[in-house]
Amino acid sequence: MAKQEKAMPRHVAIIMDGNGRWAAKRMLPRKMGHKAGAEALERIIEAARQLGLEHLTVYAFSTENWKRSVEEVGAIMDLLRLYLKNYLQKFAKDNVRMHVIGDISRLDADIQEQIRNIEEMSKGKDGMTVHIALNYGGRDELRRGVTALARQVQDGVLEPEEITEDIISQSLDTAGVPDPELMIRTSGEERISNFLLWQLAYSEFYFTDKLWPDFTEEDLKDAIDQYCGRERRFGGR
Ligand code: IPE
Ligand code: IPE
Ligand code: MG
């Protein structure tokens, strides 16, 4: 079958991996890798916006990442504070909306407050939406969604037979967002690591050996070009 060019993806998801190895290669502490990673994210958000993506979802901190040392988790949280503060200055003027997925109730109160402020402030923006996955795990997201649906059944407002795939999608943190057509993972690892388990069912995967802080605008374009020239069958013919 001839390869057909596909339209630009509407939604790209990225597992931003390799910050620690980037730092180790330079004999720097891991937190410097995370700092460089945050800078890479700013560049990639701008590039994604210019390319005309509607949604960009980035994996910033997983439900498993709490297992790291107190120092590293603390450094990541401090960077997050700084990032959110900078966002208010840098992206506030752009037409970029910010939305967080994941269970933020485990984050420090001041960070939760910052997130709520930014989400509220950027609500009306109708350019690209950046979804930042914080204390996010695909299984935890499904667990929370299932609990919410079970509650509705218990309350008598939903019949078990009415639970369609669409209802499950709407119970997730990404409710209303189209599934990503493309998922990128940097650093040479080829696994999902509990990212968007439900939403990635039909996504194309793009893996690169580049470490996240080294990932450039050109790499993003390359991933999208590869995607556009690829054929997808959705299990049909
Ligand atoms: C990804 O980089 C960032 C987070 C998980 C917070 P890593 O910190 O996982 O970097 P490597 O995989 O150790 O190189
Ligand atoms: C996935 O990377 C999570 C983030 C990028 C935030 P990890 O480095 O935590 O995943 P594993 O340990 O390689 O599966
Ligand atoms: Mg890693």
Give keywords.
Undecaprenyl pyrophosphate synthetase, 7 helices, alpha/beta, 6 strands, binds 3-methylbut-3-enyl trihydrogen diphosphate, 6-stranded parallel sheet, binds magnesium ion, about 240 residues, single chain
Question: What report would you give on this structure?
Answer:
There is one protein chain. It contains 7 helices and 6 strands; from the N terminus they run E-H-H-E-H-E-H-E-H-H-E-E-H. By secondary structure, it is an alpha/beta fold. A 6-stranded parallel β-sheet has the order 3-4-2-1-5-6, sandwiched between helices. Helix 4 (109-121) links the parallel strand 3 and strand 4 (129-136). One 3-methylbut-3-enyl trihydrogen diphosphate binds next to strand 2.
The CATH fourth-level homologous superfamily: Decaprenyl diphosphate synthase-like
Which architecture per CATH? Answer: 3-Layer(aba) Sandwich
CATH class: Alpha Beta
Which series of helices and strands comes N to C? EHHEHEHEHHEEH
What separation lies between the terminal Cα atoms?
10 Å
Averaged pLDDT: 94
| Tertiary shape | globular
Specify the helix fraction band. Answer: 40-55%
Distinct helical segment count: 7
